[in-house]
């Protein structure tokens, strides 16, 4: 076939491209005018108004109020008295607050690695479809959806020294919550038990999002189960790991309900006096100083912001979002 026979085909392609170009240049049926833009702007503002109101009323405004309270002395009874940065100086130089922060760091360091590793382990087991996995998927999230204070009350009865279920089962009378050596490990154990369902849920979702073709290709190349998990699944769980660690650290630093229910007023010899408990005691028990409590809360907020930024920087080059 000669070159002349191909000429109509080329011209047809050229004509189709030119027609698409002309179609792309056709003006819209509704021309964009200043009036149309104003209407769209009003509609956007109307749709965003509820969210902006909630953000302002329940996030920005409380933060501003806490900042203002941190600059004043107020015991809920006498008139508020402006003291400037005095509360901040007292908090940052207070040995009791420093000890509470140290205990909080120990609490977080003991809870987060265990609950993350246990959640990942359970998620891997459930993803294999073992017998009873469906029932267990329902059971393991129950502690997470229950009220933390209610769980604390239940566990306080379980860990009671004389009539507690655990001691009756073991035949001992161990003082789990009143011993300075055992109070913090007991509280950490209850926290891990209540939060492991949360980490398992997200890890299970991350594992189910990994394409089966990727795993099958690795298996065809001779990779065993451990190599598939370590070199394929775990790297692809990076975004889930980042989310679980960030939210877990924030939650552990703010832990209060269960700790206060298990060991009120800081526990034996203040061994469970974490930062959230210290803020509550300063504001509503003994101290009745909302100014100092607000300064403590802002210090905790600043620490959480710094930790979150460090986690984001650490995971920035280690997390991949490509599941293809």
Provide a brief overview of the structure:
With 324 residues, this protein is mostly helical. The protein has helices at 3-24, 34-69, 86-92, 95-127, 133-139, 142-145, 148-158, 165-170, 183-208, 212-220, 225-236, 238-253, 257-262, 275-284, 290-316, and strands at 72-73, 81-82. The protein is 72% helix and 1% strand.
Describe the protein in words.
This protein has 324 residues and is mostly helical. It has 2 domains: 3-69, no CATH class; 86-316, MetI-like (MetI-like fold, Orthogonal Bundle), CATH 1.10.3720. Helices cover 72% and strands 1% of the residues. The chain is built from 15 helices and 2 strands. A two-stranded antiparallel ribbon has the order 1-2. A hairpin with a 7-residue loop joins strand 1 (72-73) and strand 2. Helix 10 (212-220) runs antiparallel to helix 11 and helix 12 runs antiparallel to helix 15 (290-316). It is flat, with a radius of gyration of 29 Å. The two termini are 44 Å apart.
Features:
single chain, 324 residues, mainly alpha, MetI-like fold, 2 domains, two-stranded antiparallel ribbon, 15 helices, flat, disordered N terminus
Gross CATH architecture of the largest domain: Orthogonal Bundle
Distance between the termini: 44 Å
The chain-level structural class is mainly alpha
The domain tally reads 2
| Proportion of beta-strand residues | under 5%
The number of helical elements comes to 15
Order of helices and strands: HHEEHHHHHHHHHHHHH
Runs with pLDDT <50, length 5+?
A: 1-24
Number of strands: 2
CATH topology of the largest domain: MetI-like fold
Mean pLDDT: 86
Please bin the fraction of helical residues.
over 70%
CATH level-4 homologous superfamily of the largest domain: MetI-like
Main sheet strand line-up? 1-2
Globally, the shape reads: flat
The largest sheet is:
2 strands, antiparallel
CATH class category label of the largest domain: Mainly Alpha
From the alpha carbons, calculate the radius of gyration and give it in angstroms. 29 Å
């Amino acid at each position: 076939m000669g070159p002349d026979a191909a000429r109509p085909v080329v011209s047809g392609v050229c004509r189709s491209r030119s027609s698409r170009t002309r179609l792309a240049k056709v003006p819209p049926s509704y021309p964009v005018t200043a009036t149309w833009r104003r209407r769209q702007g009003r509609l956007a503002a109307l749709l965003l108004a509820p969210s902006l109101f909630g953000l302002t009323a329940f996030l920005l405004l409380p933060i501003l109020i806490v900042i203002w309270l941190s600059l004043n002395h107020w015991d809920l009874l006498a008139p508020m008295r402006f003291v400037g940065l005095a509360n901040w100086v007292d908090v940052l130089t207070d040995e009791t607050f420093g000890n509470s922060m140290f205990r909080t760091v120990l609490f977080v360091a003991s809870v987060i690695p265990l609950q993350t590793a246990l959640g990942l382990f359970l998620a891997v087991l459930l993803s294999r479809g073992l017998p009873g996995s469906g029932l267990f998927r329902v059971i393991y999230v129950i502690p997470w959806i229950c009220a933390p204070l209610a769980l604390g009350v239940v566990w306080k009865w379980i860990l009671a020294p004389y009539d507690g279920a655990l001691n009756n089962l073991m035949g001992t009378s161990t003082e789990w919550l009143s011993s300075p050596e055992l109070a913090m490990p007991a509280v950490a154990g209850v926290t891990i038990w209540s939060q492991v369902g949360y980490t398992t849920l997200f890890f299970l979702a991350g594992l189910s999002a990994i394409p089966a073709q990727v795993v099958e290709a690795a298996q065809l190349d001779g990779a065993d189960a451990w190599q598939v998990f370590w070199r394929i699944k775990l790297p692809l769980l990076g975004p889930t790991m980042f989310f679980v660690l960030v939210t877990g650290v924030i939650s552990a630093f703010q832990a209060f309900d269960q700790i206060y229910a298990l060991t009120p007023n800081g526990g034996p010899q203040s061994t469970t006096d974490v930062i959230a408990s210290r803020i509550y005691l300063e504001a509503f028990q003994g101290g009745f100083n909302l100014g100092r409590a607000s300064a403590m809360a802002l210090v905790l907020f600043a620490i959480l912001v710094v930790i979150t930024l460090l986690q984001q920087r650490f995971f920035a080059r280690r997390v991949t979002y490509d599941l293809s």
